[in-house]
Specification:
- The protein folds into three domains: about 5-125, GTPase HflX, N-terminal domain (Rossmann fold, 3-Layer(aba) Sandwich), CATH 3.40.50; about 185-380, Rossmann fold; about 385-444, 2-Layer Sandwich (Alpha-Beta Plaits), CATH 3.30.70.
- Helices cover about 45% and strands about 20% of the residues.
- The protein is built from 16 helices and 13 strands.
- It has helices at about 5-15, 40-45, 70-85, 95-105, 115-125, 130-155, 155-165, 165-195, 215-220, 280, 285-290, 305-320, 340-355, 370-380, 395-410, 430-444, and strands at about 25-30, 50-60, 85-90, 110-115, 200-205, 255-260, 260-270, 295-300, 330-335, 360-365, 385-395, 410-415, 420-425.
- The chain has a six-stranded mixed sheet, sandwiched between helices. It has a four-stranded parallel sheet with strand order 2-1-3-4, sandwiched between helices.
- The N and C termini lie far apart (about 85 Å).
- The relative contact order is 0.09.
- The model is unreliable at about 1-20 and about 225-240 (pLDDT under 50).
- Bound molecules: guanosine-5'-triphosphate (GTP) and magnesium ion.
- Magnesium ion (MG) binds near residues 213, 214, 248 and 249.
Length: about 450
């Protein structure tokens, strides 16, 4: 029996270099309580570059040796031979022992991949910027460590002297990657602070994979290019790819938007998915940080999903995300695909699942544009805001103050003889700065 999963997954990784369906797989799903639904695992398989050639499901309790029952495992082995599949994809988490038993049972060279491994493969081949790559590496190391520990404990007697410890190497690498990520995380959070200083409100778009987050970003963002911002703001760019594929977006993207007269930076984040343990998801921390440190967040839900699926995805999303500084709005997207009655049902479902976590539920079609104006109004209302009035002399300093104020918040100015009455609305910190500038003008 082979029992060294990390070596096997290294080999699998080498073949995960492209997302055209150049590999074939059989999908296996088991559930104790109901007939398993394989829609999502099949979509994950496609996103990882597999063509699914067969599907096996089983309704029963977990079996010890193969996770599925022995009969099912043997049937799988026969079907792998019959279809010449490259891999068996399990919509489960396999223990190292089950992994070893399945590897031994299936024809030589057949990949054995569980749900976590599959998600990591998708991120590993697609992750773009440094933070995303490091997060993926950290997720993979954390995923492998307990399996390595178990393997090393079991084989300790034979191998202790000859090889050195992969556990120790992995632990060391985890610390290095964690430190690098901490630095990047600090930089991201400094950058958010700078942008707030510049008067931007930060709005994060989050939600389950394929809910329509990137499409919504396009819908709400200004057409304006954003590269006039400082050059170190490298994550600001105009593209957020949209595709009917799971995990299309693998790093966060930020674009400008003007909402209710306020200057907003919208951040599109990486999709969430069920069945990945919390510490794995937490290692995709840029997404979770962007939400926790936002002034308001949009939680996008796919209203075209069947109701139970929608509820479950919403539950998973809420469990992973922290509340933003401002309000959390739930966006029922793809409303063009459902009728009014179904939409009402979904609103009620959001109310019962999200309860008091959400301020409001808004139906939109990010694709067709329906509901976008309501959503903009709701976002504007969800942002933390403060207003102040100033009565200033109509002089050059006041004009430059007004120019500054226009850049940092919402301004109305009324001219009355040699006086200007200004009303200014913005984030509390910016309003404070406006107050001191106004005082300086009056005293100057
Ligand atoms: N009919 C309809 N389709 C939509 C709508 N919004 C998004 N879509 C489609 O849904 C699919 C996924 O959209 P994306 O914007 O890529 O979704 P995402 O949440 O960014 O997905 P990931 O980045 O993969 O997590 C695409 O095929 C979109 O065209 C909508 O309002 N109506
Ligand atoms: Mg996306």
């Amino acid at each position: 029996m082979q029992d060294s999963p990390p070596a096997e997954t290294d080999a699998q990784r080498a073949t995960t270099s492209d997302d055209d369906a150049d590999r074939t797989a059989i999908v296996v799903a088991r559930d104790a309580d109901e007939q398993p639904d394989t829609t999502e695992i099949e979509r994950l398989a496609r996103a990882a570059g597999y063509e699914v050639v067969d599907t096996l499901t089983q309704r029963r309790e977990e079996g010890g040796q193969y996770n599925v029952g022995r009969g099912k495992a043997e049937e799988l082995a026969r079907r792998v031979v019959a279809t010449d599949a490259d891999a068996a994809l399990f919509d489960l988490e396999l223990t190292p022992g089950q992994y070893g038993s399945l590897t031994a049972l299936l024809p030589d060279g057949t990949g054995v991949v569980d749900r976590h491994r599959l998600v990591l493969d998708i991120f590993e081949t697609g992750a773009g910027d440094e933070a995303a790559r490091l997060q993926v590496e950290l997720a993979r190391l954390r995923y492998e460590l307990p399996k390595l520990r178990e393997t090393e404990e079991r084989t300790h007697m034979q191998r202790a002297a000859e090889t050195g410890s992969r556990v120790v190497d992995t632990e060391r690498r985890i610390r290095i990657v964690e430190n690098k990520l901490d630095e990047l995380t600090d930089r991201a959070s400094e950058r958010r602070a700078e942008r707030r200083e510049q008067g931007f409100d930060l709005v994060a778009i989050a939600g389950y994979t394929n809910a329509g987050k990137s499409t919504l970003l396009h819908r709400l963002a200004d057409d304006l290019a954003v590269d006039e911002m400082a050059p170190d703001h490298a994550d600001l760019d105009g593209v957020a790819a949209v595709e009917d594929r799971l995990f299309k977006t693998l790093d966060t993207t930020t674009r400008r938007a003007t909402i209710g007269g306020r200057r907003v930076l919208l951040t599109d984040t990486v999709g969430l998915v069920d069945g990945i343990p919390h510490d794995l998801v937490a290692s995709f921390s840029a997404t979770l940080d962007a939400v926790a440190d936002s002034d308001a967040a949009l939680l996008v839900v796919d209203a075209s999903d069947p109701l139970p699926t929608m509820r479950e995805k919403l539950r998973v999303s809420l469990a992973e995300l922290d509340d933003p500084r401002g309000e959390l709005l739930v966006v029922l997207n793809k409303s063009d695909l459902v009728d009014d009655e179904a939409l009402e049902e979904r609103r009620n479902a959001v109310d019962s699942v999200a309860g008091d976590r959400t301020a409001e539920v808004l139906a939109v079609s990010a694709l067709a544009g329906g509901g976008a104006e309501n959503l903009r109004d709701a976002v504007a209302a969800a942002l933390p805001s403060e207003t102040a009035q100033f009565d200033l002399p109509n002089i050059g300093d006041t004009q430059s103050f007004l120019a500054w104020a226009h850049d940092h918040g919402r301004v109305t100015a009324e001219y009355d003889g040699d006086r200007v009455r200004v009303e200014f609305a913005g984030r509390p910190a910016v309003v404070d700065r406006a107050r001191s500038r106004a005082t300086a003008i009056r005293e100057g």
